[in-house]
Structure prediction request, 310 residues.
Amino acid sequence: MTKPDIAHLISQATARLSQAGIATPRVDAELLAAHVAHIDRGELQAAILSGRELIFDAEHFDALVSERSRRVPLQHLVGYAPFRSLMLAVGPGVFIPRPETEQVAQYAIDAVHGRLKPQDNSTRPQMLVDLCSGSGAIAFALVTEVPNSIVHGVEFSTHALAWAEHNQRLLAHEYPAVLENLTFHQDDATRALPELEGQVDVVVSNPPYIPPDQVPIEHEVREHDPEIALYGRGTDGLTVPRGVLNRAAKLLRPDGEFFMEHAETQAQAVRDMARSSGMWRHVTTLPDLSGRDRMLYAVRTKDKSGRVVT
Prediction:
């Protein structure tokens, strides 16, 4: 049997994907080929350059390229999405984690580390909450990158929660803390975890926030990401974020910190929403890696006695 010319097949696939309007046709073609060969993209490139033979199912590759040409998300086809140092299983029914959300997680992780002073001999675990968890991306980043933390993730969708719990089982082999210190809850993020009110150190969230009249242009997002993870309800898309903001205020202890992703165009409205509640100080907008205004940061207000102001 003739061995397939993988380099030629990738070139053909690149042309097909480009014609279909894929923004990164060569990258997608190589990632699909690497998936078929059961290796990573770097190893695939090295094998092609060196002439090393690979076990490769050309028909399977062609079928995947056809699916990608129909704008099925690459992550659904290969079965995973990268998030920081992790690889998360994703598929229909769950929001695909985005690179910009990695920065939301980074801010939250930095905040927790800022609390852990070298001279502090306290062994109290840091209590962290991820509202609107989806695949569990932020929650997994928190529990794997913040030692001595207890993390709770809240997700309303049973379909998305199934993916989060699946990822929890997969990651537990490499990160025991994922099973020991992380708990997922199926609940409405605007009222979840009443037993933790006033006890949480950091709350972080990437809630749905798209207004109903701003349907995403990208076919992959519009047709394949679940609507419940996209649209924030209300004419401005901020009904869910407003509920998350209010819930975070109840969950946080005095001086607890809150981080929430939003659309660039919503920065002023979200700041106004936080300030008008009277429950926050240091309300500001944080940039993503490209400098866009994409995150709210706020600190829970307390009175002179140290009590949380409600």
